[in-house]
Amino acid sequence: MSAVPPIALFHQWLLAAAPETPLACSIVLHGTPPPLSPRLCAGIATYLNEYDEAGDGRWLALQPDLVPLIADDPRRRHLLGLDKETDLHQPSQPFGIQRVLAALAARGHVVLDSPLASAATRGLKNVFHVGIGLPPDSLADCHIILNPGLFQITCLPQIIGDVFLEWLNAPDRKMQPLHGL
User: Fold this and answer.
1) Could you tell me which of 9, 114, 126, 174 has the fewest CB atoms within 10 Å of its CB?
2) Hey, how many other C-beta atoms are within 10 angstroms of the C-beta on 112?
């Protein structure tokens, strides 16, 4: 059986949710060692497709080469709700990539691991941030920080998935942080 091309997975993910469905949450990884990234993203998406009942199997591990394909195509940007303003900038440059990453994250059910994803999703309330190792950007934005050297790779997706589901289903996600008590 041949692998499904990333752009086909993007279209399946995009069309999986009904337009009236409220926006879901996404996960952004920070500082993931490059060799670990694809396997970790895929593992998290697979885990959440099995255990996130509300996600209904729609979780997508976004492959890094997919974002420029979306950014460079005005029709695909339009599918994400990005207007023509993006055409004024070079879409495959950081500004255009960040806009695509923000639109993907805002739609939900996506696991992102890109250096630009942190800045692109800053301020979005529906994003769960995970630091893998010591992220180069900011630890203050991370909900959880894990040392990948102290866990087997097979454990990380379940740990991240379980903590995310607890956060997602917390009665009040605006609770006072423990360090603020």
Assistant:
1) 174
2) 25
Residue 172, in any domain of the structure: no
- 78/146 Cα distance (integer angstroms): 36
Q: Which residues pair with 145 in a beta bridge?
A: 131
* 22 band by pLDDT with thresholds 50, 70 and 90: low
User: CB 93: neighbour CB atoms within 10 A?
Assistant: 11
Q: Report the distance separating Cα 164 and Cα 82, nearest Å.
A: 28
- Domain contains 158: yes
What pLDDT score does 113 carry? 92
Closest by alpha carbon to 125, among 12, 16, 26? 26
- Element (H or E) spanning 127, and its range? strand 127-132
Report the C-alpha gap between 145 and 133 in whole angstroms: 7
Cα dihedral across residues 7, 9, 15, 17: positive or negative: negative
Q: For residue 1, is it within any domain?
A: no
Number of domains in the chain: 1
Residues spanned by the domain of 150: 6-15+22-167
**Residue of 18 and 27 predicted with greater confidence:** 27
Residue 180 resides in a domain: no
Check if the beta carbon of residue 110 is closer than 8 Å to that of residue 55: no
Query: What is this structure's pTM?
Result: 0.83
User: What CATH number did the domain enclosing 151 receive?
Assistant: 3.40.50
